[in-house]
Each structure stands twice: as C-alpha cells, then as structure tokens.
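Q: What residues go here?
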C-alpha cells in the first residue's frame, strides 16, 4: 500500500465542487502506475485496465470532501459561508480553517454567543470566518464569493496503525480503488476494469452519474466509508455492529446486487479476511445510489471502510481495514471473467 501517496491525498483540499487540485495529482499518479488515464468534463479521473474487453467493471471512490463556500463578506471583513455537503455546525465554532482564495488564507470559525455563552445549536447563517481582515475592501484583496473553505487540521498517525484527520471520507475509498486496480493487474485480471475517482458525491453525485453513463459498465462497486458503532452514542441497531479494525464492510441494501456481494464474500473467504455487514434498507448515501439508476440501470453494491467520527474535522480510520479492503477487491476482480452475469434470474 502506497501510504506516502495516501498521506499526500489527505493533505490536499478537495471540497465538493473544487476537486481539480487533487484530481490532477490523481491523474499523474495513475499515469505513473502505467494505466490508461482519462478524464471527463465533470472532473472525474479514470484508470483503465483491459478497456477493449466486452465485460467492464467499474470501481468508484468519491474524492470530494465536505466543507464550505464563501457566500458573503460583510462590512467588518467577516466571511460568511454556505455548506458544501453535510457539515455539522455544532463542531464548527473555534475551528481553524483555510480559505482557498487568491492564496491560502488561514481563518478561525468565529464563536457564536448567546447570553454570553457559546451557542450549542448554531445555524448556517450564523457561522462566520475571522481571517483578521478589517473591512470588506480589505478582505476582497484575497477572498471572493465562491471560494472554497475547509478545516485546516493535519493528519496524525495514531497507535495500532490508525490515522486521524479530515477527509478520510472519502480519500480512503478513492485511494483504495486505484490500489485495488493495481493489485488486480498483478493477479492477472482479465476482464475490463475502470477505477474512477469521482467528484461531487457529497453534494450532487454528478461524478458517479457522468462515469456510469460514460462507461456503461456491466457492474459497479462504490467504495466508501461506513460509520462504526464501537464508540459511545452510535447504536449498532442503526446499520449493524461495525468495529474499527474489524475488516471491510459489505452492504446489504434494497439495491445491492447479490451476485456481486456473493463474489466479494467468496473472495474474502479465500483470503481468510472477515467481512462486516452493513444493512441499508433504503439508499446507501454513496455513489452506488446513482450508478444503480444510471444508463439502463447498472447492477451495483457498496463496499466500505470503517470510520469513526464521520463528517467531523478529526475522522479516525484503521490502515489495516484499508489494506484488507484493497485485497478483497483485487481478489474478486482477478477472478471475474467474461462469463460473469449479475442477472439474478440467470444461473
């Protein structure tokens, strides 16, 4: 596993709608790995293996993260923002941020007071950034409405091969699909494969839509992250019992293709890797919701990496889970041949 490149990904801002800085790095990385590299007008990046083959599988991992965009600069020079994805406002106050303006502008998300105390339930229209500007004119030298904003927290290595940082959702999945493609090639994969780092999942899911309709694959697997239930307050009854370090998470949902799921289960069994189970009775909240309804309908499932504290500035993952996710995907893809048929009515 190319940990150095993963760290580079985690240290690059990629707020939903502003992914191109990181996607350029992905494009160069894919070329260095020797894959056919492609892009599309939405901002997706594709790594292709055996593109001439009739049977095509698509792996997708979204590369965007939650964050903010500048909406207004007031007369005092405070920066007001709109949300790009599901940000948790209660975690925002006092956090250090970076405004991606004419240069990277450090800022602090201001404290919102109510009767002299920090407000516990701030609303979006109350959030503001203090970058030290003295006036609107002062701020406009460097900041423009539409600029992207993200938390500036660094990535830290924790004990037991774990990481903490923002944007593990879903740098981990985007990283995993490229690594899995490389290992599937090493294992002699014979079917057509595309690993796509998709844009816009946190806001519009436009990237998955573009990719699915462009490639028209026979099947798709969205590689994302999944809430663990191993810390206080997250009930296992919601999605299932999921532990950090417990292995990859296979989704059983209303749309999950059972033949793909079975193939992943068999691959994990051959490797003696334990899978954890997520149950999503409706949509999954991943790119698979879009691939499933694109083109003529693409058989899909979701394969996820356990994550604590999702959509916070300090998400926590296990690199062991990332490694096992890559291994299972590569094993599955290397055993798929032209005879694979996801149709549940066909033996």
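A:
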């Amino acid at each position: 596993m190319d940990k150095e490149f993963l760290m580079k990904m985690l240290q690059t801002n990629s707020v939903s709608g502003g992914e191109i800085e990181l996607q350029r790095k992905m494009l160069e990385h894919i070329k260095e790995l020797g894959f056919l590299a492609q892009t599309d007008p939405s901002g997706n990046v594709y790594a292709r293996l055996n593109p001439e083959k009739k049977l095509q599988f698509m792996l997708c991992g979204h590369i965007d993260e939650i964050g903010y965009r500048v909406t207004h600069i007031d007369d005092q020079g405070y920066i007001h923002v709109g949300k790009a994805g599901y940000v948790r406002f209660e975690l925002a106050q006092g956090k250090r941020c970076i405004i991606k303006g004419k240069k990277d502008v450090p800022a602090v998300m201001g404290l919102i007071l109510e009767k002299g105390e920090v407000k516990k339930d701030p609303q979006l229209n109350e959030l503001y950034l203090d970058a030290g500007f003295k006036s609107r004119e002062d701020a406009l030298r460097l900041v423009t409405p539409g600029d992207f904003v993200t938390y500036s927290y660094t990535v830290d290595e924790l004990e037991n091969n774990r990481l903490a940082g923002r944007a593990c959702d879903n740098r981990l999945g985007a990283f995993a699909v490229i690594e899995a493609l490389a290992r599937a090639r090493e294992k002699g994969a014979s079917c057509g494969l595309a690993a796509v780092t998709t844009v816009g999942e946190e806001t519009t899911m436009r990237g998955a839509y573009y990719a699915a309709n462009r490639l028209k694959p026979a099947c798709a697997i969205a590689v994302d992250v999944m809430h663990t239930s191993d810390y206080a307050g997250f009930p296992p009854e919601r999605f299932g019992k999921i532990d950090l370090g417990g292995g990859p998470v296979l989704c059983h949902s209303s749309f999950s293709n059972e033949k793909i799921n079975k193939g992943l289960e068999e691959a994990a069994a051959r490797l003696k890797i334990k899978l954890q189970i997520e149950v999503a009775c409706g949509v999954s909240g991943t790119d698979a919701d879009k691939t499933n309804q694109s083109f003529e309908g693409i058989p899909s499932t979701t394969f996820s990496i356990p994550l604590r504290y999702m959509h916070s500035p300090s998400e926590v993952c296990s690199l062991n889970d990332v490694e096992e996710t890559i291994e299972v995907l590569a094993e599955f893809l290397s055993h798929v041949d032209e005879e694979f048929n996801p149709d549940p009515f066909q033996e």
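A: Context that may help when evaluating the design: The longest helix spans residues 168-186. The mean pLDDT is 95.
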